[in-house]
Amino acid sequence: SAVISQKPSRDICQRGTSLTIQCQVDSQVTMMFWYRQQPGQSLTLIATANQGSEATYESGFVIDKFPISRPNLTFSTLTVSNMSPEDSSIYLCSVGGRDGNEQYFGPGTRLTVT
Amino acid sequence: GENVEQHPSTLSVQEGDSAVIKCTYSDSASNYFPWYKQELGKGPQLIIDIRSNVGEKKDQRIAVTLNKTAKHFSLHITETQPEDSAVYFCAADGGSNYQLIWGAGTKLIIKP
Question: What confidence tens digit (pLDDT) does each residue in A17-33 have?
Fold first, then answer.
């Protein structure tokens, strides 16, 4: 399985500011996913990011709020824009495995908005 | 839309006993069913998965069973150890672009 790192691991931000989260993979992958996980909850898919195409956002998530970049096959960023306390959550990136459906996750970014 | 239900939400077992977590799914077209373990402060870790052409799969102390007719699958952990304490998530493939539909999670507590 791929080794996935995320930066930062955690941050405390003021409302109205933006934070960019980086996801780096040690091998080339086609599919990358960004999730949000609120404390004690399950995972909610924000968007699917494939290299060479625009990210596909799930219902309730919009590009203006969560812009995503996917410049190459090993890297992606998720920006949380104009943050409010409701954005406090864990943000996870995952990558698709070679067999298609399986996903491997990074360690997550714990965001607190004050 | 597609839905995955997971039970129980919390499971407490004595160390050495077995633990069983059950999930049901709604989309009969689903063919891939992974289980993830998430320890505190970490990302989910894929621990075992099963595809629809197989009824059971084992890996040491963990096993997964699948009943496609009834649309349910289960995670079995035998001889539980303290390090098995974590939140476990089931999922099923669904939608487009290789997305996964997630269960709500089960907090497994291993009592010494």
Answer: 999 999 999 999 988 99
